[in-house]
Amino acid sequence: MSQTRTVTELAEHLGGTVQGNGATMITELGALETAGPDALTFLANPRYASKVAETSAGAVLMAPGGERYGRTAIEVANPYLAFAKLLTLFYTKPHEPLGILPGAIVSNSATIGEGASIYPGACIGRNVVIGARTTVYSGAVLYDNVVIGAECTIHANAVVRERCQVGNRCIIQPGAVIGSDGFGYAPDGNSYYPIPQIGIVVLEDDVEIGANSCVDRAAIETTRIRRGTKLDNLVQIAHNCQIGEDCMIVSQVGISGSTKIGNHVTLAGQVGVAGHLTIGDNVLVGGQSGVAGSLPANAAYSGSPTMPHKEWLKSAMVMPRLPELKKSVSALEKRITELEMALKQNRQES
Amino acid sequence: MSQTRTVTELAEHLGGTVQGNGATMITELGALETAGPDALTFLANPRYASKVAETSAGAVLMAPGGERYGRTAIEVANPYLAFAKLLTLFYTKPHEPLGILPGAIVSNSATIGEGASIYPGACIGRNVVIGARTTVYSGAVLYDNVVIGAECTIHANAVVRERCQVGNRCIIQPGAVIGSDGFGYAPDGNSYYPIPQIGIVVLEDDVEIGANSCVDRAAIETTRIRRGTKLDNLVQIAHNCQIGEDCMIVSQVGISGSTKIGNHVTLAGQVGVAGHLTIGDNVLVGGQSGVAGSLPANAAYSGSPTMPHKEWLKSAMVMPRLPELKKSVSALEKRITELEMALKQNRQES
Amino acid sequence: MSQTRTVTELAEHLGGTVQGNGATMITELGALETAGPDALTFLANPRYASKVAETSAGAVLMAPGGERYGRTAIEVANPYLAFAKLLTLFYTKPHEPLGILPGAIVSNSATIGEGASIYPGACIGRNVVIGARTTVYSGAVLYDNVVIGAECTIHANAVVRERCQVGNRCIIQPGAVIGSDGFGYAPDGNSYYPIPQIGIVVLEDDVEIGANSCVDRAAIETTRIRRGTKLDNLVQIAHNCQIGEDCMIVSQVGISGSTKIGNHVTLAGQVGVAGHLTIGDNVLVGGQSGVAGSLPANAAYSGSPTMPHKEWLKSAMVMPRLPELKKSVSALEKRITELEMALKQNRQES
Description:
350 residues; alpha/beta; ten-stranded parallel sheet; 5 helices
């Protein structure tokens, strides 16, 4: 996929400004230390600014006004983001509009958008609607009445169950399940009667779901993941959850039913969140934490159960010293008893 | 699926008693606050009893003898359960007996029960037996010699490996794996030799397995999940486990090999259970707990390692105050040293 | 699969030495307590040596020089390992070289090794190479340019994404995903821009991947799992990780990006490991631990965050006693205050 482009062409692609020789030919991307004269590199962290002087790269992405040591540069506000965009340009395969390939199983009542690709072994149910330029890989199963937006990628063996809706530019990694039944039961003596889970899941635009993650359909209404939120692998989102925009839900996190999560929240790996809670905007929860109560916005939390992250850091430092602390208390107890006896004796003597 | 029914018809369906106008026509179900005159609602929690006076619902499910404020009511012993049953009646699609659909891959030696539905892309191995009115969705794979009971639902891309047995009315959510090889190895110098896992998995009647959950086959005999037990998503059951009846195993729980779990046990989300343990009947284990030893019946536990739940609640409250506690002990130490010196001085003076 | 073999034949298979009657016919394997005269059993734990006197088994696997109480024995250095090898011999189905079965979807450009078996519904992409005697079960999907070695088993609905490489004798359990995109994003205002994950995954020889486990492809280079390492079910390996040889990664473990794990490391169930760490050779980490910093080799750790395992054992014992400890400190505080007052009074009096 890689091909030669001039620095000027790349600057135009990024909306950046060329400093130096815009005619420099770029054929690949590389790191500051290892990039050669045909490669473009980037400076994101000002700590490494002096490395620009030594790089052999043909050009450098950097923030406006930085010292370029005579190198050809493309100035952009966010060099790391710009580099990611060039990785896409240079190295990712553009969408192949293959249509419905032989071996794909597509219901007659399904609507397949222009330029979509449906791979062999994909199964598309009745009345499914698939947007333009979307790819559905082998073994992916879309149940009846599913709606998938444009420019999505539904990877192999992912499943979207009946009536669930996926926005535009969503990516569903292999094996992920959207719309499995919520875990809801009515006690019936010692047994449990399964409460029909008649709601759906809605994934808004630009949502990504990691491999083998699960998002349960709502009991009655909608489990919703809002625009731009990314789920890592093996994440569990229970029924009726509302996850805000631009959240990062790291691997193996589990969120129990009916919990509402604000915008721009980060839950680190293996966090568990209880049901019916509210997590405010911009909250950050540390790995393996157990969220047992609602969390106010704009703060970091850790621990199981959670406490403010800074408190947890201090508590965690005491943890390995608990046996020592316990011994200290026993020793103090003994010294105090001795003191008390000594004082009593003093009094008796005096 | 929804259609009109009279209150009397619904009462008969539930085995309940009509109070008021049995001829009232019901077309949908709703909440006490929002249900209209064509809707039936329910009162399960006595705390909301006064809302019955204000509801616009055409009829109310309630416990016998409750104040119905002149509303039409259906009296049933368990209104929540009855409401769940009506959700099933009104809103769930009845089983479609579709037979073997084109695109399904079914071995000639398989036996498919009457009224079963095998979707395109499902793969049914040699000598598999599938009971009456069971549905196998696209991409589900049943290895050779699998037995599935009647009225089961095997969702898309679920896998049941060779010789495993599934009872009647079981539901296996998408992507779940039944009968994967247990994690057993014999050390061979620094390396590991895989011990053949030649046993099977048996799921008894009315068992449900959540999306992408895994139940490993036994090393030699049977990993068994007894009647009525429900597994949520992403649960791990290791080889040789015996899980009792009517248990609730919440998402992301992991149970290690050869552990025996009693009846009516609830393990909350992300609990881990070590191997070769015994958990008694009616035990409840709190979220994220780590069960490192066997647990006696009829009690609640939490923590990692577990302790009685009430003790854990108290310990968890001390956790954030550990740094403060440590400072207190240091301060006491200093005060005691001063006291000791003062007393010594006193003695020398006296 | 079972058939009759003489003790001498079995000894030759194992490279062991016959003591007693090598002509004894063996048809099955069993436990010391229950094996009959046609069965072979084993003695691995010297604690049970006296049971050899009472067994009805036709022959016993045991370490050289053990007391055989007149029984026919096969002496081998590692009886447990030898027994596992006989389980394989007696009870595991040998590979069936079925070729490409009808209903398998195999690209014309794929290369399928001699004696391989590709089941109906398996999907093999462009330029895929599959080694000799490898089995690919129904619903497994190999994306374009995947390379699979010889004598591998790729179970149903497993997915290997584009360009990833699998060594010889690897086993991938159902639903596992190899090569999903790493979880990498460049902040773009409040939103996140997905960084193309253009690297691959390499599984070396004799690696096993549990059901529904996920191994993410590297951002640029290679996520690597070295020879002989075994992953249990529902494990997450993030992008750029390097996992050493002969490791045991138990169920539901999650390892964050770019972490390096040495050889012969055991991570027990539900352990979480942060990113960019180094774990030394022969490390053992206890269940549910949270590894927040690098861990030196040849030691055992537990806790979240981790500490040396022995320290953790002591700390964990104090945990349930924290409320009591806190009360003790308060009581000491009171007693000291009283002592201080008493001493002050003494001084005033004297």
